[in-house]
Specification:
The protein is α+β, with helices and mostly antiparallel strands. About 30% of the residues lie in helices and about 20% in strands. It has 2 domains: about 40-330, 3-Layer(aba) Sandwich (Aminopeptidase), CATH 3.40.630; about 350-440, PDZ domain (Pdz3 Domain, Roll), CATH 2.30.42.10. The chain is built from 9 helices and 16 strands. The longest helix is centred in the first third of the chain and has 41 residues, at about 15-55.
C-alpha cells in the first residue's frame, strides 16, 4: 500500500522572521551579560570575604608564629584543599601545604610558607613552573621596630591592603586556573614573614636549590621555575592605574604587559627592573624573571587604619582579570622566558641619597595632573615640616621639573644635606611654593 506524506511548510514574512531573530539575539545577549555580572559579583564577594577575615581583629595582624598566623594559614590551606591542588611536602593533609622555616637571632620564630601546585597540561611545558605569589603575614600589634608608621600605638594592624588584598586575588587565581587548566605548571605561594625582610620567599628559593626527600610535586631543580608573578598591595586602585615591575627581566614581558593593559583599559606603569620591597626580589636574586603588580601606597599603609572598608573591590576585580590574562599568556609562551639582568631603575637607591624628604610618591602615575603625587607625607620629616601634605602634586624641586618617579629620584640625588630648597606643589587648583630644609638621609 502506498503512503503519501504531506509536508507543511510555514513561510514567515521576512520582516516577521528578522524581528523574531533579533529578539532571540537580544535575549541571548541579555542572559549572557546577566551571567557575567553574576560571576563578577560572586568573585568580588569572595575576595571581600577573604579580606574581611584575614584582616579581622580576631587574627590580630597576622604576625608570624602567633595565633593569628595559624588562623590565617588554616583559612588559606582550607581553600587550597577544597580546590584539590597538590601539596608540596609528604605528610598529613593539614601540613602538606606547609613549607616550614625558622628565623631570628635573639628570638627564634618558626612559621611557614603555604604552597600548592597545579600541574600543567602540556606534555612539554608542564615541566616548567610559574610561581604566583603574595605574602600573608603582617605587623601584628605594631610597636617600636615593627615597621609600623604609628610605632607608639599598640593596636592591631589589620593589613587589609598589605597584603590580604593580594592573598584574596591569588586565591581567586587558583580557582580560575584549577577550572580552566594551564599548559605550564603553576605554584601558588603565600609567603610568610615578608614584613621581616622577605624571609619566607628567601627560604623557599634556597630550599629549591637543594634536594629534599620530603618535597613532592615541585620541580627537582630551581631552574625549572621560569617566572614569578607577585601581588602585593593591590587593593587601592585609583584612576584605573597600577604598576608592574620587572618588565625588563625577560625580553617578551613588556610587550605582553602593555598589550593586556590596552585590552583591559588600564593605565599600567612599567618598571624594567625586578628589585623592590616584596617577595619577587628573592626570585630576581636567583636569576628568575619576575612581574610585580601593585596599586601603590596610601596614608593607611602600615597603620591600624589599613582596614577592609578602605579597599577598592572593583579595582581588585580589574587586577584579578588583568592578572588572569597575564598568567594565561605566560603559561602558553612557546619558549622558556629568558632572564635579563636589569640594574635597579634607580641607581639612586635610598642608601645612596644624601637627603630625604620623608614622603612616599605615586609610582603608578595614577594622577592625570603633570607632576608626581605625594601619597604619604610622614609627620616630622622635612616635607611635612615645610607644609607639604599627602595628596599634593610635586611639580618642581629646586627649580627643576618633576614629571615622574625617575625625575624625582634624579632630583633627590642632586641635593645636599643642610641646605634649604624650594619645592613647588599643586594642591587642588592652587600652586604653592614651600621652602624645605633638607636632613641627611637615614641609614
Amino acid at each position: 500500500m502506498d503512503c503519501e506524506i504531506e509536508m507543511f511548510v510555514v513561510i514567515l514574512h521576512p520582516k516577521s522572521y528578522n524581528s523574531r531573530l533579533m529578539k532571540i539575539k537580544y535575549i541571548i545577549l541579555f542572559l549572557a551579560l546577566a551571567l557575567v555580572l553574576q560571576v563578577h559579583a560572586q568573585r568580588q564577594d569572595d575576595m571581600r570575604q577573604a579580606v574581611e577575615y584575614l584582616a579581622s581583629q580576631e587574627l590580630g595582624g597576622r604576625y608570624p608564629a602567633t595565633a593569628g598566623d595559624t588562623l590565617a594559614s588554616e583559612y588559606i590551606t582550607s581553600k587550597l584543599r577544597t580546590l584539590k591542588l597538590k601539596p608540596i611536602v609528604k605528610g598529613k593533609k593539614k601540613t602538606g601545604f606547609y613549607h616550614n622555616f625558622s628565623y631570628g637571632k635573639t628570638e627564634t620564630r618558626t612559621t611557614h610558607n603555604i604552597i600548592a601546585v597545579l600541574p600543567g597540561k602540556d606534555k612539554h611545558l608542564k615541566h616548567e613552573y610559574i610561581v604566583v605569589s603574595s605574602h600573608y603575614d603582617h605587623l601584628g600589634l605594631g610597636g617600636q621596630g615593627s615597621g609600623s608608621r604609628r610605632p607608639d600605638t599598640i593596636a592591631v594592624h589589620p593589613g587589609a591592603d598589605d597584603n590580604a588584598s593580594g592573598d584574596a586575588v591569588v586565591l581567586e587565581l587558583a580557582k580560575h586556573f584549577k577550572k580552566v587548566g594551564s599548559p605550564r605548571s603553576i605554584i601558588f605561594a603565600f609567603f610568610g614573614a615578608e614584613e621581616q625582610g622577605l624571609i619566607g620567599s628567601k627560604h623557599f628559593v634556597e630550599w629549591m636549590k637543594h634536594d629534599d626527600a620530603q618535597r613532592i610535586n615541585l620541580p627537582a631543580n630551581i631552574k625549572n621555575i621560569v617566572a614569578n608573578v607577585n601581588l602585593d598591595m593591590v587593593g587601592r586602585m585609583r584612576n584605573d592605574a597600577m604598576s608592574v615591575s620587572g618588565t625588563g627581566t625577560s625580553s617578551a614581558f613588556k610587550a605582553i604587559v602593555e598589550s593586556i593593559a590596552k585590552q583591559k583599559n588600564l593605565k599600567v606603569t612599567c618598571i624594567a627592573d625586578g628589585y623592590g620591597p616584596s617577595d619577587h626580589a628573592s626570585f630576581v636574586a636567583a636569576d628568575i624573571p619576575v612581574l610585580y603588580l601593585t596599586t601603590g601606597g596610601h596614608m593607611e599603609y602600615h597603620t591600624p587604619a589599613d582596614v577592609p572598608s578602605t579597599l577598592n573591590y572593583d579595582g581588585m576585580q580589574q587586577t584579578l582579570e588583568y592578572t588572569e590574562e597575564l598568567i594565561t599568556q605566560l603559561a602558553a609562551m612557546p619558549n622558556t622566558p629568558d632572564y635579563i639582568n636589569v640594574p635597579s631603575s634607580s641607581n639612586h637607591s635610598h642608601a645612596k641619597f644624601k637627603v630625604t624628604l620623608g614622603l612616599m610618591t605615586d609610582a603608578m602615575g595614577a594622577s592625570d595632573t603633570p607632576g608626581l603625587r605625594a601619597d604619604i607625607v610622614v609627620a616630622g620629616k622635612p616635607a611635612h615640616t615645610a607644609g607639604i601634605r599627602s595628596g599634593d602634586i610635586i611639580q618642581e624641586i629646586d627649580g627643576k621639573p618633576v614629571k615622574d618617579i625617575e625625575e624625582y629620584m634624579q632630583r633627590l640625588s642632586e641635593l645636599k644635606a643642610g641646605t634649604t630648597i624650594p619645592v613647588k606643589v599643586l594642591r587642588g587648583e592652587e600652586t604653592i611654593l614651600f621652602e624645605v630644609h633638607l636632613n641627611p638621609a637615614e641609614k
